[in-house]
Design brief:
This protein is α/β, with parallel strands linked by helices. Helix content is 36%, strand content 20%. Strand 11, helix 8 and strand 12 form a beta-alpha-beta unit. InterPro entries: Aldolase_TIM, DHquinase_I, NAD(P)-bd_dom_sf, SDH_C, Shikimate_DH_fam, Shikm_DH/Glu-tRNA_Rdtase.
Length: 287
């Protein structure tokens, strides 16, 4: 705050100590974002209501909750959920409106799809009318929150979707929801129905500290034109490294991470353009 920042994001578990420490010295224009994360389970409406109340009680100007949403009907009892959130089944950003109501958005699908489009060589814009994904076959590995976001986002852009997952039933469920096809994870080794496919890893395989993990054998990567990995730590995963060795264009999960943050910034600030160059500079120092 001494640097003149307008927004500070702190975790709920340390919010009390932090706010006590800065008591009386916080600039009026500086807004506090208080965050809570829970990826282990889907909270009930009562638990969400309690969490929002706790965050508001510590003095937050902006409430930020990151969690899973296995039952979007349950979650929507508390939040007014945007259409994409209802389809994807996950919320990544919550905005408190002037009337006190909470509005939920999903920025993950925008971040991932824009990153993939740029990787292909397209516009990479959430507002782009023409997209390089139209008509392309995109293979999504993983049927969790990130997989759903990518599958729905790519489907919206006109891509044809194939979902591969370790638990085949989950792949079938997501594939049916987007009018695609399902595969068992092991089938990716020989899956090559056409040239020019795009692969999107939406699992945690390869995430630090298990950096040797990868969802697909190296020899199968040559089937694809572009490989995207939602994993952002490390920046260059084993999957991306092996894809590059096969001569395939790659897109790091850092791009999705950054682009969803750009979208969140604009949501939190009511439309102020995010300082992308600065955010890229800071991110580059820590990835």
């Amino acid at each position: 705050m001494e640097l003149g920042v307008n927004y500070v994001d702190i975790e709920l578990k340390v919010a009390d100590k932090f706010i006590s420490f800065i008591y009386g010295s916080k600039p009026e224009k500086c807004k506090l974002i208080v965050s809570a994360h829970n990826y282990e389970s889907t909270p009930s409406c009562e638990e969400l209501a309690d969490l929002v109340a706790r965050i508001q009680a510590v003095g937050a100007d902006i409430v930020k909750i990151a969690t899973t949403a296995n039952d979007i009907v349950d979650v929507s009892q508390m939040f007014q959920v945007m259409v994409h959130c209802q389809s994807i089944g996950a919320i990544s950003t919550i905005i408190r409106r002037p009337d006190g109501k909470l509005l939920g958005y999903n920025n993950d699908y925008i971040g991932a799809i824009c990153a993939i489009e740029d990787g292909i060589g397209g516009p990479g814009s959430k507002n782009a009318a023409v997209t390089p994904l139209a008509g392309r076959l995109l293979v999504v590995v993983g049927a969790g929150g990130a997989g759903k976001a990518i599958a729905y986002g790519a489907k919206e852009k006109g891509a044809r979707i194939v979902v591969a997952n370790r638990t085949y039933e989950k792949a079938v469920s997501l594939a049916a929801a987007v009018g695609g096809h399902a595969l068992r994870l092991a089938e990716l080794e020989t899956f090559r129905p056409e040239e020019g496919m795009i692969l999107a890893n939406a699992t945690s395989l390869g995430m630090y500290p298990n950096v040797d993990g990868t969802p697909i054998p190296k020899q199968a990567l040559s089937f694809y034109d572009v490989v995207f990995d939602a994993v952002y730590a490390p920046k260059v995963t084993r999957l991306l490294r092996e894809a590059e060795e096969c001569g395939v264009k790659v897109v790091s999960g850092v791009e999705m991470f950054l682009r969803q943050a750009l979208g969140q910034f604009e949501r939190f600030t009511n439309g102020i353009e995010a300082p992308e160059s600065l955010m890229r500079e800071v991110l580059a120092k820590h990835t």
